Amino acid sequence: MNRRKEAEIKKALAYEAKRKEERPVTSEKEKQIENMKKAWHKFSRNKLSVVGLIIVCLIVLGAVFAGYITPYPEHASAYVDFANSSKAPSSRFLLGTDNMGRDILTRIVFSFRGALYMAVIVLLIAVPSGVFLGILAGYLKGSVLDTIVMRITDVFLSVPALLLALAVASVLKPNLTNAMIAVTVMWWPWYTRLVYGMATSYRNENFVISADLIGAGKFHIIFREILPNCLSAIFTKMALDVGWVILIGATLSYVGLGEQPPTPSLGQMVSDGSRYMPDAWWMTVFPSIAIIIIILGFNFMGDGIGDMLSKGDGKDE
Amino acid sequence: MNFKRFILHRLLLSIIVIFGLSIVIFCIARIIPGDPARMALGATATDYALENFREENHLNEVLPVQYVYWIGGVLRGDFGISTMTSRPVSGDIMEFLPATLEVVVLAALFLVVGSIFLGTLAAKHRDSVLDGLIRVFSYAGVAMPGFVLAILLMLLFGYVWPVIPVLGRLSHGITSPPSITGMYTVDSLLSGDFKTFWNAFLHTLVPALALCAGGMFQEARLVRNAMTENMGRDYLAAMKGYGVPNRLIMNKYLLKPSLIPAVSCMGMDIASLMSNAFLIEVIFGWPGISKYGMNGMLAKDLNAISGVIMVFGILFVGINILVDIIVAYLDPRIRLGGGK
Mind spelling out the 3-state secondary structure of A110-125? Predict the structure, then answer.
């Protein structure tokens, strides 16, 4: 009886060892797949998030392959065809043509490029700098650095982003790069404020205090202990902010402080088209709808990412 | 911290913020690549005139000294001469600000009243058609840039259904009322001229609507969500049990705590309302300070830009203090300094 039990235990242990030896990779992979399934479940619980994801994917694909999928790629630059100017939507020009005879659909799809480019660059610069300042000020709460950084942040947050961005863009030369500079200058304080709040609360948590006690350096505590805990909030905000940056970008280009013609941009198309209202309504209405759809898409997707990352990152649940 | 000290603390903080803002604005006005004197006087100006201009405006000093001169002027209400209108910027601002305030105040009024009204209605009739409509509009309000809404409203009321005038402040043939506050609606009321008042009011309507619509539906959602969340609270059930009339419960004990999240957002919303005015005034041909500022920006009129942004910054900070005070009034936890 005893021997049999022993043999059974041995067998089980051997099996366990074998299993560990043989399938460490697959089990890790399975775990990953499991995690991804969980994350997708959380994301897709709200159907609007899925709609947002589809919209965003279509827009990104459209921007990347604009040259192949649009009917008249040559219309995306300085192209003039007065024979077809201001034509109403038809089977030849699905969304009509503008006053130069250029296909509106083509120009809308090409303008996604500038909009996405702007959002990506602005966030790539503004988020790391804002996060860095916020986490530093939050960890060193009460220091001179904290006071200086947070008071500057307050100043920038006291005036709406659009207004200061307009001012900065207007004193610079009007082009896409300067519009991006203007928006970036206005964008980092939001991340500083966000991360600052989290960093000040985490610095009193046990995991930070114990890391401090075993002699971890400040650098390690800030970037290895505190930062990973802030990431999900930062990513959620970033996903939502893509839409906002595009909105401000469209506003800047609407007043002529963004991308310059002949390169198409949504705001500029709306503003050019509005001069031909109401007869040539398609010149204004379709680019406007495009703006609304982009921003809705990013907002819905951002909400979904927020759901996905909330409560335990979808990993350790 | 008691209520008075709370307000005092906020006031002191905002003075620091406004001071910081003046530095930021000064830096923006000076980061320009190029010669401010040349920009002010144009390409044909002689060297002598340029030198004179620099001397007059202290442009030969180092930047901190220039800032001290500038802020000294600002504190006395002197923002310099606008290169666009060749008049003092402060005079221009005094002339154009009332028109903007007229629209913004009406829009803010719409925002507050409309959002509370719609939110309460949606909370009362949960999952009804109205509730769904408000949800759809709040999504659209998030995604629709102010200028798009303005253009669409312009199309609707200007061409499709011309029942309300959309351009300018008064119709042709109606003389402007005697200037008391500079706001046509208020002035005409004060001088008892109801016909002018009605005309001026109608002209304010569409721009105000274009300004507030996006924020209004979002606020309505916030009010609605807070109300439906609070509806399940024990204290309301207790009140119902005591026999407190349903109406009193709805309008007082449920509404008041449910307004807190919406009011804290309203400050931001009213602020963004004013920045949206920058585009909307241009579209509706509204001769306000935003249109003036926008023209200044396009003409690179540095004094006008810095003056307008300074005024807006002070207004925003003021609105935020006001909102903080209202939130403190609504939320005794803040007012009395207990809890978080």
Answer: HHHHHHHHHHHHHHHH
